[in-house]
Structures are given as C-alpha cells and as structure tokens.
Amino acid sequence: VIRIERRLRQPRWLSLAVPVGSILVSLVASAVVLAATGHGPFHAYRRLFDAAFVANGALSASLTSATPLAFTGLAAAAAFRMQLFNIGGEGQLYFGAIGAAAAALLVGGGSTTLLVLAMCAAGAAFGAAWALIPGLLRAFLSTNEIITSLMLNYVAALILNYLIFDSLSYWRDTSSAEAKVFPQGKPLPDAATWPTATLHLSSGIVFPLGLGIAAAVAALLWFLYSRTRFGFELQVIADSPRAARYSGMRTRRKIVAVMAISGAIAGLGGASQDGDFRHLLDPRGLTDAAYGYAGIVVAALARYNPFAVVLVAFLLGGLQNAGYALQGADFPSGLVGVMQGLILFCALGGELLVRYRFRVGRGARAASVTAAGAAS
Amino acid sequence: VNNGIVVVVLASAVLYGTPLLYAALGELLAERSGVLNLGVEGMMLVGAVMGFWAVQRIGASGPVTLAAAVGVAALAGAAMALIHAFLVVTLRANQIVSGLALTLFAGGVGLSSYLGNDLHLADQPARHQFSAVDGFGLQKLPIVGPIVFDQSVLVYASWVCVIAVAVYLSRTRFGLNVRAVGEAPDAADAMGINVTAYRYAHTLLGGAFAGVGGATFSLSITPQWVDNLTAGAGWIAIALVIFAFWRPGLCLLGAYFFGAFAALPFTLQARGVTLAPELFQSLPYVMTVLVLVLVSSRGAKLRLGAPAALGTPYVREER
Hints:
The structure holds two protein chains of two kinds. Chain A is mainly α. Chain A has 16 helices and four strands. A two-stranded antiparallel ribbon of chain A has the order 1-4. In chain A, strands 2-3 form a two-stranded antiparallel ribbon. In chain A, helix 4 packs antiparallel against helix 5, helix 4 packs across helix 13 and helix 8 packs antiparallel against helix 14 (306-326). Chain A is globular. At the A-B interface, strand 1, helix 5, helix 6, helix 13 and helix 15 of A face helix 4, helix 5, helix 11, helix 13 and helix 14 of B.
C-alpha cells in the first residue's frame, strides 16, 4: 500500500525541513524517555530552554559551549564529506590543547596577538599530527580509520593525564607545595588570555575569539570544498573512488590532506579551549566534556555544510550548557547525550525523506503498475 | 607454578577477554548478515548498567538473580540494537553514522550514564557477582588449572557460545542463510530468504551478546557501576571481528590476546611495578591499532572473509 521510491530531484526546502523536523521529533522522543523515568517533560524543557537561551548570562555561556562544538563539528564535516570517518576529533582536540599550552608557556610574554598566533599554529599543528596517524595508515595501508582514530582518542586522553597527573612534565605546575599534592597544569601567561567581544544588549553577550576563528574556518572550508579544484577532486573521490583513480587524481594524497585539515581544525578547538576558557592544560575538564563526539552530531545534523555547522553548534552548545547548569537530582547527567543521540537518529531517519518519497494508496498502485509496465 | 606471573596473566587474560569475546561474537553475527553495527560500545554500556540494576533490585537467591541479570542485560542490548536495525534495514540509513549515533546515544555520556544516575547505581558494591567456580574439580592442575578451570560461569558459557555460533554458521540451514544474506542479498532474496527478517534478527542477537559482554564487566570483572565502565572495549571488539577474519574460533584467541593486555596493568601493579600506569593502560588501544595495521596491509588485497554486502542496505527495487 505504501511505496517508497527514489526521488529524482531533491527539493531544496527539504534540506532545511529535515534537520528542523529531526529536532522536533527528537524532543518528543526525549520527552518519552523523561516521562518513562518519572520526570515531567514540559517542566524539564522549560527549564532547559531558560538555562540555554533566556536566563541572565545564558547566551554567553551557550556561546562558550558552542565554540568547541563548532571546531569539532567542522573537523568532522571536513572529513565525513569525503567519506573519511575521522572520529578522532576528541583526541585531536586534546593534542591541540597540549600544543597550544606549550606554545603559550614557551613564548611566555609578548603581545596577545603574537601569543594567539603561536597558540593557533601550535594547536593546529599538533592536532594535524595526531590525525595524520590514522590518515597515513588509511592512505597507504588501507587500515580502517574509524577504529584507529577512535583508539587514538583513548591514547591521547591517557597522554594528557600522564602529562599532568603522573609526571613532572613541562605542562605541570610544580611551583608550590600545594601544586605538588594536587596536580594541575601550569597557568598560562596573562597575555595568552584571548580577547573577547561584548555585545551590549540587556545583559551583555560575550563572544569568545574562538567562535570568530571557527566562523572564519567555516568560510575557508566552504571556499576550499566548493570553489577550488582540490574540493572538486575530493567530491569526485568521495562519490566514485574508481572514476577518480582512472582520471589520475591522487587519492592517497587527498586522504592524507583531508585528515590533516580535519585534525588541524580540531586542534584549533583545543587551542581555543586553552586561550578562551581554561588558561591552563586541564585534562579532567577536557576529557569530561566529550566535545569531539558531540561534534559528530553537529556535523551530521548540519549535513556537513560548514556554515550550518556553526549554527547547529550554537543550538547544541545551548543544550550542553543548559545540561551543566541544571545538573542535579532531577536533571541527571547523560540526559544531554541522550537528547543529542536522539537528534542524530532522527536526522538519519530523515535522510530517507530526502532521498525517497512515499506514495500511499491508489497513487502507489498506479505507480507500481506503470513501473511494472516499463520493466516488461 | 600456578602463582608465576605468566600463569596469572594468562588466567586474567581469559577473564578480561570474556566481555570482548561476547561482544565480538555478537558483532560477527550482525556483520555476517551484512549489518555493520558500530554501536557495540553503547550496547555494552547499557547492558552493563541494566544488568547491574537487575542484580541490585531483584530479591531472589544469588544464582537466580545473576541469571535474571544476564537476561536483562541481553534484552537491554537487543533493545539498543533494534534502533540501529530499524534505521539501517527499514530506513536504509548510513550504517556507519547510525552505529556512531547509537554509541553516542547509549554510551558513556548518554543513556547508560543517565540510567546509572537516575537509578542511583553509582558507588554501590554489587549484591551478587559471578565468581570463579572450580570447574570439574580440576582447579589445582598445574598451569591449565587456574587458566581454564578456575573461571566464572560467564567464561564457561562464552565457550559454549563460541561453539554454538561456529556450528550455527557452518552446519545449520539458518546459519547458511545468514551467510547468503551477508554475501549476496539479491540472490538470497531470489531463493525466498527474507533478507529483512534475517538482518533484524541477527542485529538484535548481536545487541544481546553485546549486552551480556557489558554485564560481564559490571557483574564479574569490576562488580559495580561507574560511567564509561567498558572504556572502549566495544571498539576493540569491532576490531577483533576484523582480526578474526569473521570466524568465531579466531575471535576467542583474539579476545584473550587483548584480554592479556587489558589485565597486564592490574597484574603488574599488584606486583609493585611502579611505571606510569598510563603506559600500560594505553597498551590495548595501541595494540588494536598495530594489529589492525598488520591485518589490513595484507587483508586489503585478500579481504579475508569480509561479507561482500557488509555495510550496504538491501533495496529490492534497486537490485
């Protein structure tokens, strides 16, 4: 009775309607989870929305949460678009934070501009280097990049912990007796605190510099992927690896380049964590936040469009920020992850609507008759 | 002999390898039917938390409670797998992204953490746990005694499962049908095999195995619930299926190989080795990458045993 058939043309409005629809459907699904575990969904949603976008300082806090998600979302989008499933954004972000902290400590004083540049360069380089491991393995030994990049997340987290908690590394604060008992990172120099822009509305909305950098990266990425020969070749390789090889495109180099770009973007996210927010190398804060994994949700919901990534990052950043703000007995941790997962499920299911259309009842029968007639 | 470090490491390799073995067997079944499920980590965690919940809440005698808890864990894992099956079999979604979504939804920062918090399961000792049973009175045998005959019921059951899966896939009609569905779904469909039903059934079965694997952590290895209890074991299990060339018997060997690396830090710490713990803790992950490289550099050309239709949706109208 219901026929599913492939769409010949994909209407433009669907590429907006599907993500919006997925969010709405996932809100309903999350309400079921909430109700099933004895929480009032409407009350929870009202508080969630309030803590994310309405309350005093909520918008600034949401922008703070959105910044790393924009970076990891862009990192995932850059790789996923080429069918390279780099899920190592998490580890690449840690490495970016390690590199940027080292750069800030090494340069020490000087102007903020110099420090921002040094931290960004070091963060991007460290993130790219960590992403090159799965990238080179995939390009030259065709090792599954999903599993290797994920395993390296755990290794990166252990390295991060080692640097602060189990060694007397360059990053660890060993200046006082207290710091020796309670290990923590060396505070970065004051000039390494990245500037912010404040929009003076009712309560003042603070835009971190990192968000601006992320927006610039999004524009660059869009240009690279849709306006250059490099981007065109990536698209061909993604759609038809064989056609790309026969026409002489250098597939391996592209794989390595894309993984490096993806890792560099995630690494910039790590640099922004150091410069914008934490001002020291903070293993526990970074590993608890799971920005890298949430970035995959952001990228998928934005359908790998760089500008949409920044927008979606703001929405999901609001959700994450509200999750922290409300965490407690009647708002258990993990709820935000559940909602993010449900949004991703709905977006995936919604893809079906973009690619196929449904015909119900008589129309379906008529269509199948014509199809059968055409086939015979 | 039985307290020598080699025997101790090997005996704990079997214990620590058991969750990997269960999860890998489940993933193997799903993949043999053509469904790649990257949600193993999430399914294991939900199995672990629900199994632990059952042990804390069911007021029956020890063995009954534990058996029920394993059942609950299997059901919870299968319920998670149902989401994936619906998305990739019915809605033809991308299997890679859907599996990732399942791990995000169910995993360490998602549903398993939510349930653990909401059901107040953290920081409690388990009321019952699977402990070592002297198998056939052979525990005292040199070398093989502690390794083979001083294990919990979950370990013995996993061996039965390996044999059952191997026989199922190679000696029964259903098993042969599964392989047909995974290799050539259009041919299987033409033979009258219901491709959709087979893929659903084996994805769910895979989820149930993953749930039991997770419960092996929360009911036996570290009998308690903490967020992210499995610490990446689900991903190692997925890699394990590749190393094992999609064969159940090799899964067993591979699981114990990785079990040894997972057990090493604890064994060495207990013996007073004071190297940085991170070094040992990273071993299973680094070894996974290394072995995957070894297998893929050779296997890229041979594609040893990978089901031909793995990862692709079957659409009858487009065959």
